[in-house]
Amino acid sequence: MADTSPSVSRGLWLIKSEPTVYPWSQLVKDKKTAWTGIRNFTARLNLRAMKKGDLCFFYHSNEGKEMVGVAKVVKTAYADSTAEEGDWSCVDVAAVYPLKSPVTLATVKATKALAKMQLLVQSRLSVSKVTEAEWALIHELSSTKPR
DNA sequence: GCCAACGTTGGC
DNA sequence: GCCAACGTTGGC
User: Fold this and answer.
1) pTM for this one?
2) In chain A, what are the domains?
3) What is the mean pLDDT of the segment spanning A133-146?
């Protein structure tokens, strides 16, 4: 029998944004936004692998250095109109819920079970993968119930 | 503000 | 196909 649990098929990701450029609070205000400006092949690969309904941690880079919320992919990859040249993609994401207490990079680094997070392994990658185990643990650390 | 790490470009 | 030079990201 097919398992209908969403945890089997959903993709889990982490998307980075500098809060001075586009903070979580702005996504909450906007409800949804086009996730444009990705100009890295590995990140593009991840973007294009996203499916509708996939969930993403929203991470504040540079300032904060913490995961602050969860966003959802509401539109799969399409041409990024902000790209002047080259074959780049974007997706649409919507705010879903905030993390009760943000999970900082320092916490991630200090947590053994999170040592293999793509966030750490490929520190400059702006769209990275998150495993189910990492997803669950980060929710625990943030005192937030996954939805 | 600095700089390490990493990705990309281009000369050979 | 290698690798030096360069540009960018992002932590510190």
Assistant:
1) 0.91
2) 12-141 (3.10.590.10)
3) 96
